[in-house]
Specification:
The protein is 51% helix and 3% strand. Helix 2 runs antiparallel to helix 5, helix 2 packs parallel to helix 6 and helix 3 packs antiparallel against helix 6.
Length: 173
Amino acid sequence: MTIEPDTKDWTWVLNRPCPECGFDSRSFPRDQVGAMVRGTAAEWQTVLRRSDVRRRPDPATWSPLEYACHVRDVFRLYAQRLEMMLQSDDPAYPNWDQDATAIEERYAEQDAAVVAAELATAADDIAGRFDRVVDDEWARTGRRSDGATFTVETFARYFIHDPIHHLHDVGAT
């Protein structure tokens, strides 16, 4: 249930505050992404201890647990994509069907304590990777299968919106 911008214009998240969660990707220095990941991961730990962690607000909206599983997987996927961008010239990312993953991995049935630990580990991994990006590496590029091209900097700003937005989705912000 990700708020995914229209792939024809994914840049909206880079150019204005999100109309739903208010996050403004222009409002912080790029070298703060690692710290921001760690901060959101800590907030997700609180979410995963809530008594309503498995409750869907309606049949079409994920529960806090399902959103947390998604965020964990976003951290993992974006760590792989970031590594590709830093190690290869203009790589194309493999496709990822987040809705299929939610079903295949049975997000709604996962153990919240296990997800909390996995999310923390995945957050530490990608935060550390962003912490190590230096100078001209911020300009390296990568591409989604739909043709959207990112620099490491735009990738970082686009990426960090997801875990923050989903905290808003579950009422944590």
